[in-house]
Design brief:
Oligomer: single chain
Enzyme class: oxidoreductase
Shape: elongated
Distance between the termini: 132 Å
Biased composition (Low complexity): 527-538
Pfam family, one: Amino_oxidase
Organism: Caenorhabditis briggsae
Helix content: 25-40%
Radius of gyration: 53 Å
EC number: 1.4.3.4
Largest sheet: 9 strands, mixed
Number of strands: 20
Length: 719
C-alpha cells in the first residue's frame, strides 16, 4: 500500500499542474507585431484617401495583402476628432472636416455603404451670417469657371494663364460688394488663407471642380445646405478602417520606387516592401519624405508652391442644451475685433438632429474657426471663445460642458487644412492635378489636394482614393496575368534535342551501331507512319518513344533457326552461325539456287510442306510440254496440272508451276539461260538520256525513258 502511495505521488509530481494557463492577449488586426516580408499594397497615411483606397483594394481582391501605415495614433487625417464630455457622456466629436455637400456623390455613396445616416445641417432660428443679394448682375468669372470642365481649365492657358500672377485679394477689389464678401468669406472658412497670398487660379480651379460659384460653395459647406453624418465624420473613418491591417505611430521617412519591390522606411528604422505603394498624404507633407527617384521639376515646384497659408484654430464646444435655439438664433456667429488677440471668429451649429423640434434631446455642439493676432495658451483661447459667442448672442450665461481646439498649421503631419496655390506658380505644375501621380512605376501619390473632382475636400479625397486603387488593381492584375502566362502557356525552350521514334516495339536506336545505313532507312520507312519530307539531316527522321522504350546498347539475341525469312534454307554445309537478324527490319532473303529449267518458283514452305517428286507421264498435252514429242509409249494416267517431268526439282523444295496457263516452251533452238544483250543503239540512247537528264523536266525525262524502254523490249523480243 505504501508503494502505491509513493508511486501516485511521484506521478503527480511529474504531471503539470491543472491550473488554467493564461494565454497571451490576441493581437488586434492593427497591431505592430504582424510581420510580412512583401506586401501586395502598402498605403502610407490613414486619412480618408488612404482608407478608401485600402478598402477598395481589399474588397475587390480579398486575397491581396494590404498594409496601412499611419504616423498618428488614430485614423482620419484631416478628419480630426476628440473625446469630449456631452450630455450623453463621453463621446467622439469632430474637430476637423465635417460638412458634406449634397453634391458630394462619391462621399455620400461611401457613407451609405458604411450604414451611416446623414441629416441636413440645422438652421433653427435666424440666419444672420450670410445673405445672398437678390439684385441682378452680369455673368461673372466665377460662373464661367463653374461651368468649365476641370480638365479643360488646367489645359487652357488662355483661360487661366493670367490668373497665376494675380492674388485673390486683388481680384476681389474689382468685384461688387456681394461677390467680394462671398470670396473673402470663402478664403476664411473654406481655405483658412489670406487672399493676398493665394493665386486667383486657386479660386478658378475650386469653382470648376465643384461646379459652383463661391456663394454656392459656401452654402454647401456650413451655410445652410450642408449634410452631417450621424456620429460625425469620425464615425465614418473609424468604420472605414474596420478590417484593415493598420500599424500606428509609423511615420514614413523614405519611399524607394527605384527598387522592386518598392521599399518604405519609417522613422523607427523599420522597412516594409510592397509590389505597389500608395502615398496618401497632403501635398505639403511630401517634403518630409525622401522620394526615390526624385520627382520631376514641375512636380517639385507644385510641392513648394501648394500649401496652406492660414493659422486658424478649429474649436468644438459641447452643451447641455442648445440655448441659442431658445432665443431664436441659428448658432451661426461672426465676430470681429480690432484690439485682439482674437481678431475674427465664426461658428456653426453641428448638432445632429432630424429637425429643430427634436433637437433639444440631442447632444448639442458648436464648431467654429478663430484667428488670433498672436499665440496664446489654450485656457486663454477657451475663455476668448466663450466671451465672443456670449457677446454675439447676448447670453448672460453661456457655459459649455467641454471645449477643445486644434491648429492644423502647427501640425507637421498636415501643415494646414486645405492647401492653396501661391502666386506665380508654373503652369506646368497644374498638369499634376489629375487625381493621383505615379512617381516612377509602383509608387503613386494620391490626395484630395490633386483631385480633379471636389478639389481639396472630403469628396475629393474619396474620388482620389478610388481612382488610385482602381489603377493599382489593374497593375496587380496585369502583373499576375503575365506571371501566370509565363508559368503556364509559354513553351520551355531547351538546347537538348528531343529524339522521338515511332518504333513502338523495337526502338531503332538500339541497332544504330550494327545496322547498315540502307537497312536502317528501309526499316524506318516500313515502320514509321510519318516519314518527314523536309528533314535537313542526311538520315531518316528519328522518332523514338524514349519515355516508354529507353534506348539500349545491348545487341539482340541471335538465332540459328532455319527459316525462309532468314534466307538460310539452302543445303549449305557451312557451320558458321548465320548473321543476326534484326527484328523490325526487312527479311534478309538469300536467293535459293534453282537448277530447274522453269522460270517461276513459288515457295510457300511455311504453308505447304515439301513433297516427294511426283511420277512422270507420257500423255501428250500442251500442259506437259510434250505435244511435239514422237514417242508412242503409253504411260499411266496422272493428275492433271502437275508440274512437268522435265523440271529438275530440288529435293527439299516445293515447286509450283502455272503450266496450265503458260506452257513451258522447250524449243531446242531457245536457250532460256542465255543472257539478252541490248543493242549498241539502245546503249547509246541510254547514255544520251543520262547526260541530258539534268536539263529535262520531270515530264520530259519520263517520256524519254518510256521510249527507251519500249525500244529495249522490242530488241529483246526480236532476239
Amino acid at each position: 500500500m505504501i508503494r502505491w502511495c509513493l508511486l501516485i505521488l511521484c506521478v503527480s509530481a511529474q504531471q503539470p499542474s491543472q491550473q488554467p494557463v493564461q494565454q497571451p492577449p490576441s493581437a488586434s488586426i492593427n497591431s505592430s507585431n504582424i510581420q510580412q516580408s512583401i506586401y501586395d499594397v502598402i498605403v502610407v497615411g490613414a486619412g480618408l484617401t488612404g482608407l478608401t483606397a485600402a478598402r477598395n483594394i481589399q474588397q475587390s481582391r480579398p486575397g491581396l495583402s494590404v498594409l496601412v501605415l499611419e504616423a498618428r495614433g488614430q485614423v482620419g487625417g484631416r478628419v480630426r476628432y476628440a473625446t469630449m464630455q456631452t450630455r450623453n457622456g463621453v463621446e467622439f466629436l469632430d474637430t476637423g472636416s465635417q460638412f458634406i455637400s449634397p453634391t458630394d456623390t462619391e462621399l455620400l455613396a461611401l457613407i451609405q455603404q458604411l450604414n451611416v445616416r446623414t441629416n441636413q445641417q440645422l438652421t433653427c432660428g435666424n440666419n444672420t451670417v450670410f445673405q445672398q443679394t437678390r439684385r441682378k448682375r452680369q455673368l461673372s468669372l466665377q460662373q464661367q469657371w463653374s461651368t468649365t470642365l476641370f480638365s479643360d481649365l488646367i489645359n487652357s492657358p488662355e483661360l487661366i494663364g493670367n490668373l497665376t500672377n494675380t492674388s485673390v485679394a486683388a481680384m476681389s477689389q474689382q468685384m461688387d460688394t456681394t461677390d467680394a464678401d462671398s470670396v473673402n468669406r470663402l478664403m476664411q472658412t473654406f481655405f483658412d488663407a489670406p487672399g493676398e497670398q493665394v493665386s486667383e487660379v486657386q479660386l478658378a480651379l475650386t469653382c470648376s471642380s465643384q461646379n459652383a460659384t463661391a456663394v454656392e460653395i459656401l452654402r454647401r459647406f456650413g451655410h445652410g445646405q450642408s449634410l452631417l453624418a450621424q456620429g460625425g465624420m469620425n464615425e465614418v473613418v473609424r468604420r472605414l478602417a474596420d478590417g484593415l491591417l493598420i500599424e500606428y505611430s509609423q511615420r514614413v521617412v523614405s519611399v524607394n520606387d527605384a527598387a522592386f519591390p518598392a521599399v518604405v522606411q519609417t522613422s523607427t528604422g523599420r522597412r516594409f516592401s510592397a509590389r505597389q505603394v500608395i502615398v496618401a498624404v497632403p501635398i505639403p507633407t511630401l517634403e518630409n519624405i525622401d522620394l526615390v527617384p526624385t520627382p520631376e521639376a514641375p512636380f517639385q515646384q507644385l510641392i513648394q508652391n501648394y500649401g496652406p497659408t492660414g493659422h486658424a484654430y478649429y474649436f468644438t464646444m459641447s452643451f447641455q442644451r442648445a440655448t441659442w435655439r431658445l432665443n431664436g438664433r441659428s448658432g451661426k456667429v461672426i465676430y470681429t475685433s480690432q484690439s485682439g488677440p482674437l481678431v475674427w471668429l465664426t461658428t456653426f451649429d453641428t448638432t445632429f438632429a432630424s429637425s429643430c423640434d427634436n433637437s433639444t434631446s440631442a447632444s448639442s455642439s458648436l464648431w467654429g474657426i478663430a484667428h488670433f493676432s498672436y499665440d496664446v495658451p489654450f485656457e486663454t483661447r477657451k475663455k476668448l471663445y466663450i466671451q465672443a459667442i456670449m457677446y454675439s448672442l447676448r447670453f448672460a450665461d453661456f457655459s459649455p460642458l467641454d471645449c477643445t481646439d486644434v491648429n492644423f498649421a502647427t501640425d507637421d503631419l498636415a501643415k494646414g487644412s486645405i492647401p492653396t496655390l501661391r502666386l506665380n506658380i508654373p503652369m506646368e505644375s497644374l498638369k499634376y492635378l489629375n487625381d493621383f501621380h505615379t512617381l516612377y512605376q509602383n509608387v503613386h501619390i494620391a490626395t484630395a489636394d490633386i483631385s480633379s473632382n471636389s478639389l481639396g475636400t472630403m469628396n475629393g479625397a474619396v474620388h482620389s482614393g478610388s481612382a488610385v486603387s482602381n489603377y493599382v488593381l489593374q497593375m496587380l492584375s496585369a502583373a499576375d496575368a503575365q506571371r501566370n502566362e509565363l508559368l503556364r502557356d509559354t513553351p520551355v525552350e531547351s538546347t537538348t534535342p528531343y529524339v522521338y521514334s515511332t518504333s513502338s516495339h523495337y526502338p531503332p536506336a538500339m541497332f544504330a551501331a550494327e545496322i547498315p545505313a540502307q537497312v536502317q532507312n528501309q526499316t524506318r520507312i516500313q515502320n514509321s507512319p510519318l516519314t518527314p519530307s523536309n528533314s535537313t539531316s542526311s538520315g531518316t527522321f528519328q522518332y523514338e518513344t524514349s519515355s516508354q522504350y529507353p534506348s539500349t546498347v545491348q545487341p539482340p539475341t541471335t538465332t540459328t533457326m532455319k527459316h525462309f525469312s532468314f534466307g538460310n534454307l539452302d543445303n549449305s554445309t557451312n557451320n558458321e552461325e548465320p548473321a543476326a537478324v534484326l527484328y523490325d527490319s526487312p527479311p534478309q532473303q538469300a536467293q535459293p539456287t534453282l537448277n530447274y529449267s522453269t522460270t517461276f518458283a513459288y515457295s510457300t514452305s511455311s504453308v505447304m510442306p515439301p513433297v516427294v517428286p511426283i511420277e512422270t507421264t507420257t500423255i501428250r498435252h500442251f500442259s506437259n510440254g510434250n505435244l511435239n514429242e514422237t514417242s508412242t509409249a503409253q504411260s499411266p494416267a496422272v493428275q492433271r496440272d502437275n508440274p512437268s517431268i522435265l523440271i529438275n526439282q530440288q529435293q527439299n523444295g516445293y515447286v509450283y508451276s502455272t503450266s496450265t496457263h503458260y506452257p513451258i516452251q522447250l524449243s531446242s533452238n531457245r536457250n532460256i539461260n542465255a543472257r539478252a544483250t541490248p543493242s549498241p543503239e539502245i546503249v547509246q540512247q541510254l547514255q544520251e538520256v543520262s547526260e541530258s537528264a539534268t536539263n529535262f523536266t520531270s515530264l520530259q525525262l519520263a517520256s524519254s525513258l518510256t521510249q527507251l524502254v519500249q525500244s529495249l523490249l522490242t530488241t529483246l523480243r526480236l532476239q
